[in-house]
C-alpha cells in the first residue's frame, strides 16, 4: 500500500496567518487550489483556509476580504499527516475528522497536500465509496 508522500500533490504553499483573505484567494487562484494551510510566523501550521470559507464566512456575512486576516477564519487544531504514513492512516484521519484535504508534513515542514482527487486515484471503487460515505456523512 502506498504512503502519503507517494499520493500527495507536491508544492503546497502556506499563507501567513496575518495575510488577508484577498491575498489567500489570489494564491489559490495562482496555484489552482481550493485550500491553503495557514502558518504562524515560524512556519508552524495553525489552520487551513478554503475558498468556501472565504465565501461563506466572510463575503456572505458582509465582511471585507481585504480587511479580514486568515487567522480570523481558522478554527480548531489543524490536522496533518506524516509523509511516511500509510494510506490507511490517511483515510482514517480524513474520515474521522470529515475533512477533504490533508496537509503532508516531513521534518516539521509542509511538503504537500492530499485531496479527494489524490485519494480517488489510488483506491478501488469500493474504497472510494466507503471514503465518500464517511467523509460526507452528516452527524
From TrEMBL:
Gene3D superfamilies (alphabetical): CBS-domain
Protease found in the keyword field: no
SMART domains cross-referenced by the UniProt entry: CBS
Record Pfam families: CBS
Keyword tRNA-binding: no
InterPro entries: CBS_dom (IPR000644), CBS_dom_sf (IPR046342), Diverse_CBS-Domain (IPR051257)
Alphabetized UniProt keyword annotations: CBS domain
Domain of life (superkingdom): Bacteria
CBS domain ranges (all copies): 8-66, 73-130
UniProt-recorded name of the protein: CBS domain-containing protein
Classification of source organism: Bacteria, Bacillati, Actinomycetota, Actinomycetes, Kitasatosporales
Amino acid at each position: 500500500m502506498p504512503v502519503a508522500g507517494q499520493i500527495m500533490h507536491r508544492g503546497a504553499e502556506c499563507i501567513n496567518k496575518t495575510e488577508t483573505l484577498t491575498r489567500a484567494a489570489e494564491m489559490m487562484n495562482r496555484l489552482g487550489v481550493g485550500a491553503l494551510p495557514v502558518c504562524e510566523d515560524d512556519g508552524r501550521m495553525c489552520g487551513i483556509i478554503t475558498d468556501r470559507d472565504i465565501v461563506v464566512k466572510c463575503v456572505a456575512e458582509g465582511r471585507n476580504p481585504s480587511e479580514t486576516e486568515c487567522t480570523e477564519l481558522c478554527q480548531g487544531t489543524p490536522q496533518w499527516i506524516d509523509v511516511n504514513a500509510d494510506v490507511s492512516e490517511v483515510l482514517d484521519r480524513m474520515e474521522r475528522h470529515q475533512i477533504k484535504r490533508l496537509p503532508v508534513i516531513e521534518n516539521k515542514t509542509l511538503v504537500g497536500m492530499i485531496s479527494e482527487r489524490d485519494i480517488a486515484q489510488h483506491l478501488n471503487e469500493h474504497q472510494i465509496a466507503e471514503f465518500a460515505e464517511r467523509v460526507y456523512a452528516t452527524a
